[in-house]
Design brief:
Anthranilate synthase, single chain, 8 helices, ADC_synthase, 26% helix, 13-stranded mixed β-sheet, alpha+beta, globular
C-alpha cells in the first residue's frame, strides 16, 4: 500500500507529468562525477571506476512500505514514464527519464523510496550526457562545475548499535545450534555500529572517500543510504541480465604473499564454498523463470577488495519477458547471500533473533530508466545518514560450522569501508 506520492502532491495522487531532456556533453567536463554534486541538493549517485550516474534535486518522489513496496514502485514508475514527455538525444541506458531507489530489507516496516532527480549527469566510456527534468516545457541551464569540497565530519565517535559484540556472538551461537539440529541450512546475521559527529554529516564526504578507496565497487547514495557495494543484485541491459553473487569472505592482512595463501584457502574452504553454493542457487532459481537461457559458472572466483576477499560468481541470462530491472530485483530479493537458505525460514529467524531493524541495509539500491533497464546492487558496506548520526551495518553468513568469534571479526572487517570513510 502506497504511503506517499510525488513531491508536492497528496497521498495517493497520480504520477506527475514530467518533461525530461537528455543532451550529449563533452566527457572531459565530467571526469569526476562526484565532484559535481552540490551541497544541500539531495544528491544521488551510482558510480564505479569513474563511470555511472549522479544527480541532485527532486522532480518527483514515491515513498512506500510493506510487502507491496516493489509493486507500488513499479506501478508508479510505469505510470510516471507513461505520462512523461522525453527528448533523449543520446539513447544509452541511463538516459532520458531515470529514477533512483533504495528499498527496505524487510516487509515491515519497510520504508522505501523511489526518486526522480531534477538533474542527472552520466558518463559511460567515451560518452557523457546531461538530463534535466521538470514539470513544464522550460529547461534551465545547469552549469557543470566542480562544487565546493565537502568538509570531513568532525568529532566522530563510535558506539555499539543494537547489540554489543558479546551479545551478538551469543545470537550467532544460537543460529549455529538451530542449523545443527536441521532447522535451516544458512542464515545471514547483521549487526550495527553507530557513529555520531559534532554536526550534520555532509554525505558527499564519505561518497568521495568510498569511491577513491573502492573503485571496483558501486558507490551509491539515495535518500540517506550511502555505501560502496561489491554485489550487483541484477543488471538489465538491452535484453541481457547479469547478477554478481558474493558469499564466503576472508579478511586481508596487507601482506601480498599471505593474502594469496588466504585466497587459495578461501577457494578450497568447504564452509565458504557451501555458503556460496546456497547463494548462487537462490539467484539462478529466481532468474530462471524470466530467462530463455542462462550461464551459471561451475566454480566461483576470488574477488580481491582492499579489506577483504570474497568468493564470487557472475550469473548471466537472456531475458525472455518484459519485466523491468526493478521487477527482477524484487524477484531476487532476498537472496541467500543476504537472507539464508531456505530463504523464508532464514528471514523468519532473522526477525526472531537478530534484534535490530535493518532498515534498507541489504535491500536493493540502484537506478532504472524508462525502458526498464537499470542496475540494482545490494546495500552492503553501507550506512544510513541522518543528521549527525550515521548507522553502519555489516552482516555474515552463518552455517553449521561457523565460529562466533570468527564471524564477529568478519563483521568488524566489513565495517571498515564506511568507518574509514568517516574519518
Amino acid at each position: 500500500m502506497t504511503s506517499g506520492g510525488a513531491i508536492g502532491d497528496g497521498l495517493g495522487a497520480p504520477a506527475p507529468a514530467l518533461v525530461a531532456r537528455t543532451v550529449a556533453i563533452d566527457p572531459a567536463r565530467v571526469e569526476d562525477l562526484l565532484a559535481l554534486l552540490p551541497a544541500g541538493e539531495e544528491p544521488v549517485s551510482w558510480v564505479r571506476r569513474g563511470e555511472g550516474l549522479v544527480g541532485w534535486g527532486r522532480a518527483a518522489e514515491l515513498r512506500t512500505s510493506g510487502p507491496g513496496r516493489f509493486e507500488d514502485a513499479s506501478q508508479w514508475w510505469t505510470s510516471t514514464t507513461g505520462r512523461a514527455v522525453v527528448r533523449d538525444e543520446v539513447g544509452e541506458p541511463g538516459t532520458g527519464l531515470v529514477s533512483f531507489g533504495t528499498f527496505a530489507f524487510a516487509d515491515d516496516p519497510g520504508d522505501s523510496v523511489l526518486v526522480v532527480p531534477a538533474v542527472v549527469v552520466g558518463r559511460r566510456g567515451d560518452r557523457a550526457w546531461l538530463t534535466t527534468v521538470g514539470r513544464g516545457l522550460e529547461h534551465l541551464e545547469h552549469p557543470l562545475v566542480a562544487a565546493e569540497v565537502p568538509l570531513a565530519p568532525a568529532g566522530v565517535t563510535f558506539t555499539d548499535g543494537s547489540l554489543d559484540g558479546e551479545a551478538w556472538m551469543a545470537v550467532v551461537a544460537d543460529a549455529v545450534a538451530r542449523i545443527g539440529r536441521g532447522d535451516l541450512e544458512k542464515v545471514v546475521l547483521a549487526r550495527d555500529l553507530v557513529a555520531t559527529a559534532e554536526s550534520d554529516v555532509d554525505v558527499r564526504w564519505p561518497l568521495r572517500r568510498l569511491a577513491a578507496s573502492y573503485p571496483m565497487c558501486w558507490t551509491f547514495h539515495v535518500d540517506g543510504m550511502v555505501g560502496a557495494t561489491p554485489e550487483m543484485l541484477v543488471r538489465r541491459e538491452r535484453g541481457l541480465v547479469t547478477s554478481r553473487v558474493l558469499a564466503g569472505t576472508i579478511r586481508r592482512t596487507g601482506d601480498d604473499e599471505r593474502d594469496l595463501a588466504l585466497a587459495a584457502h578461501l577457494a578450497r574452504s568447504s564452509k565458504d564454498l557451501e555458503e556460496h553454493e546456497y547463494a548462487v542457487r537462490s539467484v539462478a532459481d529466481a532468474l530462471g523463470p524470466h530467462c530463455s537461457s542462462m550461464n551459471v559458472p561451475e566454480a566461483p572466483f576470488v574477488l580481491h577488495l582492499p579489506n577483504v576477499m570474497h568468493l564470487a560468481t557472475d550469473v548471466a541470462g537472456v531475458v525472455q519477458d518484459t519485466h523491468s530491472s526493478l521487477d527482477l530485483a524484487a524477484a531476487l530479493h532476498p537472496s541467500a547471500a543476504v537472507g539464508g537458505t531456505p530463504t523464508a525460514d532464514a528471514v523468519a529467524l532473522i526477525g526472531e533473533i537478530e534484534r535490530m531493524d535493518r532498515g534498507r541495509y541489504a535491500g536493493p539500491v540502484g537506478w532504472m530508466d524508462s525502458g526498464g533497464d537499470g542496475e540494482w546492487g545490494i546495500a552492503l558496506r553501507s550506512a544510513e545518514v541522518t543528521g549527525r548520526t550515521v548507522r553502519l551495518f555489516a552482516g555474515c553468513g552463518i552455517v553449521a560450522d561457523s565460529d562466533p568469534e570468527a564471524e564477529l571479526a568478519e563483521a568488524q572487517a566489513k565495517f571498515v569501508p564506511v568507518r574509514d570513510a568517516l574519518s
